[in-house]
Automatic annotation (TrEMBL):
Matching PANTHER family: CHAPERONIN
Pfam family, one: Cpn60_TCP1
Alphabetical UniProt keywords: ATP-binding, Chaperone, Cytoplasm, Nucleotide-binding
Cellular component, GO annotation: cytoplasm
Family according to the record: Belongs to the TCP-1 chaperonin family.
Protein's recorded name: CCT-theta
Entry GO MF terms: ATP binding; ATP hydrolysis activity; ATP-dependent protein folding chaperone; unfolded protein binding
Top-level taxon: Eukaryota
PROSITE patterns xrefs: TCP1_3 (PS00995)
Source organism (scientific name): Porphyridium purpureum
InterPro entries: Chap_CCT_theta, Chaperone_TCP-1, Chaperonin_TCP-1_CS, Cpn60/GroEL/TCP-1, GroEL-like_apical_dom_sf, GROEL-like_equatorial_sf, TCP-1-like_intermed_sf
Subcellular location field: Cytoplasm
Source organism phylogeny: Eukaryota, Rhodophyta, Bangiophyceae, Porphyridiales, Porphyridiaceae
Length: 545
């Protein structure tokens, strides 16, 4: 019996490879995957966005409306949808706000591209039209800035700029939290404002109490007690170590032959004397606080004898933050620090917050390089959600130190850009006008989502918004409290101009990249059960032998 080899691409690739061509609607499959991802996120954007309950592969539960957390914990595996997720992750990393905008806007652009393809347009024509629309939108957006933060060190101005980023996740608490974040960020703002680092603002989560009892500390906070009996010190001098504060261990194994109890006692005494000498030498430098990852019982005994405080910090990241707070140099060996290596702190002490003992390094009288926001809440999920909101607001402040321009929020900017794009499309004689109009329609989807998520009549509200923008009122947006419209500038609802610019650029790049795909080739994963068929959207049946 003769063997006839298979022809085509299947003959080139190993068994189990998935292959979808343009003839099999590869583009339409990618569009459908992005639409499904957008359908998950669109109900979560805006101040009244719904929460998603996600359990990741490690069994950790997430209840949040933060788009960045949702798409990260969903672990999207479809290659086309993953490109949109990567754009959202870049937006979250660079700006901190606008991830929901990227996913929702991108999914709507893909959905509108499907309609254009059915109309007969080629993907190359759609890509060209989307590119022209994005360039026009970003140019117009530059001219739409209506306010600037004149001084990034002014807490009141900064708090106004941060409100929208926090309100999109914790509506109703944006004024309080924006004030906290503004206080924390301004307190650690360096003289060269463009050198602000998000690492300088930390969050300490303490169970119990209400969110209104949260506060800001200039310095670092550890959620545990100190090791010894000394709990409070003023004008602390701090020695920090990455090694264990204990008797020195030999690098190699050795055997000691002892012939009597006296030799055994002398041997132990020599170890104790050596350890005591190290602790005494450290105390003689003026240091009265020792920070290290671990303390032995004998070392604690001598630390107490010389009236020093012992603070255990097992995390190397916490060690680094305390070093930044106090100016100490972290030493790798248990040796006396030099005067330049000793850190200084106005006060170090244990404070009981609720029923939790916290060790706090305060720098009240001098400028601190670290500020910590102590967040209080009743549940772990709420604490995590507040931490995410604060993290986004701190990232927004980082961008604010580089570009202080603001535009109207509440969907007003998107509605005005859509109006301008419709007007621009009418001036073009080419087929690009169809793509530009669909680009404008995708921008209108953002205020529509705000209206839908706030429980109003989205169609009626969108018609009203279009009418007022056509009359020249470019500052009108969606009033999520009353399910109506409002003047965003009068309500102090602003978004960062740089966040909008980056979101439009990232989304357009991701969408045009996906639309350029006309073939999908996916190799079979090595080992284990057969993976989920991502293009077909179902699971392959396996027959047990």
């Amino acid at each position: 019996m003769s063997y006839a080899p298979m022809g085509g691409l299947s003959a080139l690739l190993k068994d189990g490879t998935k292959h979808v061509t343009a003839a099999d609607d590869a583009v339409m499959r990618n569009i459908d995957a992005c639409k499904q991802l957008g359908a998950i996120v669109r109900t979560s954007i805006g101040p009244n966005g719904m929460n998603k309950m996600v359990t990741n592969r490690l069994g950790k539960l997430f209840v949040t409306s933060d788009a960045a957390t949702i798409v990260r914990e969903l672990e999207v595996v479809h290659p086309a949808a993953k490109l949109l997720v990567m754009a959202a992750e870049t937006q979250d990393r660079e700006v901190g706000d606008g991830t929901g905008f990227v996913i929702t806007f991108g999914a709507q652009l893909m959905s509108n591209a499907a309609l254009l393809i059915k109309m007969g347009l080629h993907t190359a024509e759609i890509i060209q039209g989307y590119g022209r629309a994005a360039a026009f939108a970003m140019t117009e957006l530059e001219a739409m800035s209506i306010k600037s933060v004149t001084d990034p060190a002014d807490r009141e101005q900064v708090a106004v700029a941060l409100r929208s980023a926090i309100a999109s996740k914790l509506f109703g608490m944006e004024d309080f939290l924006a004030g906290l974040v503004a206080e924390a960020c301004v307190s650690v703002l360096p003289k060269n404002q463009s050198m602000f680092s998000v690492e300088n603002v930390r969050v300490a989560k303490v169970h119990g109490g209400s969110l209104n009892t949260s506060s800001v500390v200039k310095g670092s906070v550890l959620i545990h007690d100190v090791e010894g009996t000394i709990k409070h010190l003023k004008n602390a001098k701090i020695a920090m170590y990455t090694c264990d504060v204990d008797a020195e261990q030999t690098e190699t194994k050795g055997t000691v032959l002892l012939n009597s109890a006296e030799e055994f006692a002398n041997y132990n005494r020599s170890e104790e004397d050596a350890l005591e000498k190290r602790i005494k030498d450290i105390a003689n430098t003026g240091a009265n606080v020792i920070v290290g990852p671990k303390f032995g019982d004998m070392a604690l005994h001598f630390i107490e004898r010389y009236k020093m405080m012992a603070i255990r910090v097992p995390s190397k990241f916490d060690l680094r933050r305390i070093a930044r707070t106090t100016g100490a140099v972290v030493l790798a060996k248990l040796v006396p620090p030099s005067p330049e290596e000793i850190g200084a702190c106005d006060s170090v002490g244990v404070e009981e917050i609720g029923s939790t003992k916290c060790t706090i390094f305060r720098q009240d009288s001098s400028s601190s390089r670290i500020a910590t926001i102590i967040v209080r809440a009743s549940t772990e999920n709420l604490l995590d959600d507040v931490e995410r909101a604060i993290d986004d607001a701190v990232n927004v402040y980082k961008n604010l130190t580089r570009d202080q321009r603001l535009v109207c929020g509440a969907g007003a900017t998107e509605m005005e850009l859509a109006r301008l794009l419709y007007k621009y499309a009418e001036t073009l004689p080419s087929l690009d006008q169809y793509s530009i109009k669909k680009y404008a329609a995708a921008l209108e989807e953002i205020p529509r989502c705000f209206a839908e998520n706030s429980g109003g009549n989205a169609t009626e509200l969108m018609n009203t918004l279009q009418a007022v923008h056509a009359d020249g009122d470019a500052q009108m947006g969606v009033d999520v409290e009353n399910a109506g419209i409002m003047n965003a500038a009068e309500k102090n609802v602003y978004d960062l101009l740089s966040a909008k610019l980056m979101a439009i650029r990232l989304t357009t790049d991701a969408v045009t990249t996906i639309l350029r795909i006309d073939q999908i080739v996916m190799s079979k994963e090595a080992g284990g059960p057969k993976p989920r068929d991502m293009m077909a959207g179902d699971y392959n049946d396996e027959t047990a032998a």
